[in-house]
Each structure stands twice: as structure tokens, then as C-alpha cells.
Amino acid sequence: MSVDIPKRRLSSILKPFANGGGLEGSKLNGSFSQNKVRFDDLAVEAVLQDALQNGQLQRFEHLLAEIKAEQFDDDKFQQVIVESKRCVHLLNANFGMLVEALLSVNWLARNESSREVYKGFVIELLVAQGNYTTLAVSKLVQLFLPRDEDKEGWVRGVPTVATAERFEPVHDLFVRLKNVIPMIFDVILVQLRKQFPYFKRATHVVCGYVYNTLRMTDHSAMFTE
């Protein structure tokens, strides 16, 4: 007697993205297939098309896991981001988990060319898929909070040159976003207020957030209006 084994439904992985942020984080349902998939085989657009058209989720699961793990060098990082940029038209709400993973990577730790590629991806994503605006801005504002290990980079509330330079790619990205999406300024203001470190945070963390908020006024005339 044969037994039919039901296929895992596409909706078990491609959860709709909740407009407004989805900041609690999404998790994969079910476990990974035990079959190995090489990361070199995970071309982003091909993986997305395979999931949408054929309901094949194994490669999507592995792509998502690899992006979350960030165990690749700068060249591979750029490859993934460039491929993701080319298929932003496919990154609708069904692929919210993948977008959240891409917006959560530690891109500031990458080399300069990788950071430029990443900024281009974020701009293209928000132009094509505006429902991710709150999530993206929230992730960027979070970068204004210095890490615990950055304490030595703040002397009497003032950042060292190296510490200040670390935040400049974020400010540059905000400038570019406001040039192409003027209404994003309202979202930025909401997130700046929402994420202020009011409670039980180290002094250098509060100083860093205030510094970056004031730094925004240098390139945002609307702050002074």
C-alpha cells in the first residue's frame, strides 16, 4: 500500500509581510531539508522564481539561512546584494523574511565598495517596494546606537574621528533616500523618536544617539523648519 506524503505548502515559508515594520523578526516554519545545497548555486532570482513558480523551497531556505549567518566574504556579499537588487520587483510581501534578513545584515562592517552596493540596493528596494519603508528606516536608525564595545570611542560624549566616520555611510544613505523619496522624512522622524534610548542605557549609547540625531540636522534642512 502506498502512502501519499503531502508537499510542504508554499505559504508555510512565504509568509505575508506585515506593513509597518514586522520588527519582531520572522522565523522559518519547519526544518531544513537534509540535502546539501551549495551557496554558489543560490542565484537569488532563480531561487525566488523556483519558489514562486514551482513551490520548491529548499534553496530558498538555504539562501535565507546563509544571509542570516553572514559567513561570506566581501565579494560574495556584493554578489548577493547585486543579485537581490536586480530582482527587487519580485521582493513583494511574500518574501518579507528574505527582505528582513537583507536589511539586517551588518553592512557597515564591509569594505567601501560593498557598502556602496548595499546602499544602492536599499534605494532600489524602497523605490520599488514602498511597504518596506518603515522596516528599512528602523534598521538604519538602529545603527545610530553605539555598541557596548564602542565605549572607548566616545570621550566626554564626543566621538573620536574613527567612531564618527563609522556612521557616515548611514547618513549618506539617508541623504540619498530623501532625494528620491521625499516623504520618507516623516518615517525617519517617527523612528528617531521611537528608538531614543530612554531607559537603562550606557552613557556613550545615549550620547551616540544624540550625536547622530544632531548630525541629521546638518544634511536635513527640514529639521530646522
TrEMBL record:
Keywords from the named record: Initiation factor, Protein biosynthesis
Domain of life the protein comes from: Eukaryota
PANTHER family: RNA POLYMERASE I-SPECIFIC TRANSCRIPTION INITIATION FACTOR RRN3-RELATED, TRANSCRIPTION INITIATION FACTOR IA RRN3
Assigned protein family: Belongs to the RRN3 family.
Protein name: RNA polymerase I-specific transcription initiation factor RRN3
GO biological process, one term: transcription initiation at RNA polymerase I promoter
Keyword Protein biosynthesis tagged: yes
Keyword Ribosomal protein on entry: no
Matching InterPro entries: RNA_pol_I_trans_ini_fac_RRN3
Gene Ontology CC annotations of this record: nucleus
A single GO molecular function term of this UniProt record: translation initiation factor activity
